[in-house]
Write a structure and sequence with these properties.
The complex is a heterodimer of chains A (about 280) and B (about 400). Chain A has about 280 residues and is an alpha/beta fold. Chain A is built from ten helices and eleven strands. With about 400 residues, chain B is mostly helical. The two termini of chain B are about 35 Å apart. The N terminus of chain B is likely disordered. The chains are: A alpha/beta (about 280), B mainly alpha (about 400). The interface between A and B is large, with 71 and 61 residues.
Amino acid sequence: MRKAIMTGAWALSAVSLAFPAAPAITVKGSDTMVILGQRWAEKYMAAFPGEVSIQVTGGGSGTGISALINGTTDICNSSRPMKASERDKLKQRFNSLGVEVRAAKDGLAVYLHESSPVEALTMAQVSDIYTARITNWKDVGGPDAKIILYGRENNSGTYVYFRDNVLMGKDFAAAMQSLPGTAAVVNAVSKDKLSIGFGGAAYAKGIKYAKIKKDAESPAVEPTPATIKDGSYPVTRYLYLYLKTRPTGAIKKYVDWILSPEGQSIVTDVGYFPVK
Amino acid sequence: MSSANSPETPETKGMRMATPVPLRPKIPSENSGGGAAASIGDATTQGNGASDAFTGRPGPGNPGSRRVLGMKKPLRLGEIAIEKFIQGVALLSLIFITLIFVFIFREAIPLFFGSSDHAVSLGEVGESESYGEVEGGELAADIPELEQSEAPFEAKSLVSAVWQPVSLEPKWGILPLLAGSLKVTFVALILAGPIGIFAALFTSIFAPKWAREGMKPVIEILAGFPSVVIGFFALVILATVLQQVFGFQYRLNAVVGGVAMSLAVIPIIYTVSEDALAAVPKVLTEASLALGAAKWETALFVVLPAALPGIFAAVILGFGRAFGETMIALMATGNAALLTPDLADPVRTLSATIGAEMAEVVFGDTHYRVLFFLGALLFMISFGLNAVAEFFVRGRLLKQFNGN
């Protein structure tokens, strides 16, 4: 038995010597995009066996961009656009401002407890609630009770997106409880009748999505694949791939495949929205 | 071998006092020739040689035994090598601590002296190239690109009540974080202190042998319990139960975090207190019982006061554990940087802040350095607490019992 195993091991190592390993592409970045990135890699490697090996890891958008700047990853997944300071660092290092690929679209939802009487909120109301200008539910058509705020940790792309696009650059209220991960926010809101939360539109259980009005007169829109795709739902964002330079060779083929109908169909499977 | 007639060092003397008649000659690596010869004498001449070793005088048979020593030289070199190896491994942990210390401080110090950042404004840096055309529905709103202001960091900004590191105008007030850590630690110690100490008192004095043998390992298993499991338990179950019982407005708060943290602290306080109580000489207990004191009186008024320095050390160590615990705080305290006296408000602790924010900071910028500063602060606090605890155990407890 042991002999058989040894023979097998020798045979394997001989094979691996005879056929040099496929070129590797490393992908690193956003935790939001890890599942999407892994699904892309699996399907791509299954479609073109033996051509490339793709390794996908998370760590966060900032981690991925740092890795791109340090030259330790080929492709960076990011759920937020690169900052000017990061582009500057990339330029100092590689004399390139980076190449941005918009790979998918994501809608952010505002969660309410399923029993909440509040149905729709305007962007201004959401902003006021999260900056503690509105602290009581009765100001937005709910019961006379304090609003309990839940949100994402400040290292997440979601936090930054919400701050820049909903709060318009203002600070979150200090009383906001920040939780690691969208699932944790959903879980917390589902257990707390007087709470409000925000995160990706891909999760839902025990909660409901608030319909969002762009301003007081515009219609209330629920986040659905259709409204996110056509842009009528106001809180949407892109998910990006970043590269150091314009893609060539194996990386170009991979990026082109991600943007092809095949790659984009995986985006829908994972719960995000295609860019094409 | 240069100082053949030098007197024996106190250490080797003490060592040999512990084993007056060694079966095998123990040859200290850096000992004088006289001492080594005498110890060989121990083995050969049994009792007679031993008294020689006690006085430390070089025996008359020195030249002869030196020849014996010469014959054993290869063995001796091997022993030196083994001793040095063990010594080196022990030193390794010391080196690790020092390196961690140096690294953390090296990353934190540029915060105060000189800046590694340089201001970047949007105008100076161009846009990234884009690749792959996007068709169909555009985003509802153009994403405004807002950049953090790159105002130079000032050390005094650390002492403020607002912690907003990922803001357009970052605010680095560590006071709410410090207060959060202290609140959670306070709740944890209020619960874990009495429980740990009384459990230790029970096992060391009241418990029958079978109970002691069952209880000790069980509590020690609790010490090895993964803190993420405790945190998860607190997040899902404990928070709901405590909210229903006490009617907290916030589900996750300092009390929930502190109660969960006490589960991690109890074993530390228990184990160290147990050791301290066990070290109290039986003479004290017996004397107290002989004078007619009840068992509980003996426990509370004789044994407990005698072991007090050790119990104090246990509480200090528990404090350090609670202060540095990350995962439980991250999951169960709500992580809102509020500076309020109310224990039922959510809090954000120092360690949870590092745990939550380190993953995505841009390496080398102010936020990164401030987090390392928080790390250095935690390091110094736990280092100080351990030093104090050590001082109390070594300096007070042992002195009290040994009387020297």
